[in-house]
Amino acid sequence: MLTRMSARDDTALVTLHFDRVPGVLGRIVHERAADYAAAEPALGATRARTHRFETALRQPGLSLIAEVKRASPSQGAIAPLDPLDAARAYEAGGARAISVLTEPRHFDGTAQALRDVAGGVAVPALRKDFVVHPAMLREAAEWGASAALLMVSVLHEATAEYLHMAHHLGLDALVEVHDERELDIALEAGAPIIGVNNRDLTTLHIDLAVSPRLIRRARDAGFGGVLVAESGYRTPQDLASVRDLADAVLVGSSLAGSGDLTRAARDLMRA
Ligand SMILES: O=C(O)c1ccccc1NCC(=O)[C@H](O)[C@H](O)COP(=O)(O)O
């Protein structure tokens, strides 16, 4: 599918080629593109950037971004979490930011979950969704998020354009990559925050060697921004390979399904 969108006045024409996105991820982005096909692309007035998300992740030591994740394609149902209760529990456990899934079909996410979390905890909230339309960024800002996820595997060459749109709206962006080619696109786009996903979103296979490999490559290329290792972390031992390399880790399933979110967050991050 080819989608052309013109965000009036404040953004350039953006073209996304979803046919290039295979597997599970391909199915999800086709659904999200259909959800937003008739949405208004204009962003509205520029909002000041607070850099709240970036600042939270730049604190000394490995920062935890804890995810409110009730379900996923790889796990099915994880836990029937109340998003705000879960976010407060994560915050009490030391999380420096909360990731909130807003995708409804596969992750049981909602807009209200993001609104509740963004308004109910002191730490910044990330909108975790499959951004395929400018309106999704406008919503993220309106719902109180400090940041939004941008996936290079979905946006390809449009990554820089979407990064610009996020910044226009006052949002930080977590620009996610999974391989060398995607990392090069993120670096070229000038992303200040890059996340390396250990999960191949087309096959759902997790390889914890991906994050240290790409984080080293980013640093070797002179990248001075924030680097986040994402997915598949269950124990403090799992974190050993990124503890002295990454600025932050993004963890969902193992915390969300633990039954005691505060304790699980504390125990995971214990050095
Ligand atoms: O988690 C999935 O099964 C999944 C499937 C398809 C697209 C995205 C998916 N997850 C998004 C994420 O990358 C994770 O929610 C996040 O990094 C946390 O991962 P984890 O700690 O392994 O739950």
TrEMBL record:
Do you know which SUPFAM superfamilies this protein is assigned to?
A: Ribulose-phoshate binding barrel
User: Entry's Gene3D superfamilies?
Assistant: Aldolase class I
Recorded E.C. number(s)? 4.1.1.48
Q: Which GO terms describe its biological process?
A: L-tryptophan biosynthetic process
Q: Where in the numbering of this chain does the Indole-3-glycerol phosphate synthase domain appear?
A: 46-268
Keyword annotations for this protein, in alphabetical order, are:
Amino-acid biosynthesis, Aromatic amino acid biosynthesis, Decarboxylase, Lyase, Tryptophan biosynthesis
What this protein catalyses is:
1-(2-carboxyphenylamino)-1-deoxy-D-ribulose 5-phosphate + H(+) = (1S,2R)-1-C-(indol-3-yl)glycerol 3-phosphate + CO2 + H2O
Molecular function terms from GO = indole-3-glycerol-phosphate synthase activity; phosphoribosylanthranilate isomerase activity
Pathway note: Amino-acid biosynthesis; L-tryptophan biosynthesis; L-tryptophan from chorismate: step 4/5
One Pfam family per UniProt:
IGPS
Q: What is this protein called?
A: indole-3-glycerol-phosphate synthase
Q: Which organism is it from?
A: Deinococcus grandis
